[in-house]
User: What shape does this take?
Amino acid sequence: MSSLNKISRMIAAAAVAAVAAASFASHPPATYAAHASAPIISTAKTSLGRIIVTSNGRTLYLFEKDRNGKSACSGQCAAAWPPLITSGKPRVTGGASASLIGTTKRADGRLQVTYNHHPLYLFVKDTKAGQTNGEGVNAFGALWNAISPAGAKIVKPSAPPAGGGGGY
Assistant: This one.
């Protein structure tokens, strides 16, 4: 193989690497976390009653499998239920309680926002403000629930039993 041929191949390889690097820079890999430098937690009135939401009205959920303020949701779980990630101090407005807001460190080292020690998540099937499609869903080993401003899980009222129960 001639020196000129080797140089041509090295230049071609460098050009391919440069194109790949440029493509990566302009299209970084997707992350599933909902990220804000300092998210604002607020409240909104929904069909479930008053719940905590993001500043743009997206419902926030707790995962009943989480223990001691630590997230039990990663991988595919976090793809469906993106954790609310922060790099700043989260804030509250509109009826949410500042004393209940906090953070917890995830296994990957990022900080996840918590409310009353519950790590907070969004749901990918909630595409607009006010939607609560994740309420009561049993997925990834436990139930998902919206959260009240007091920091408790919301339990969707069940339908009354059929027949009305007149008793006679």
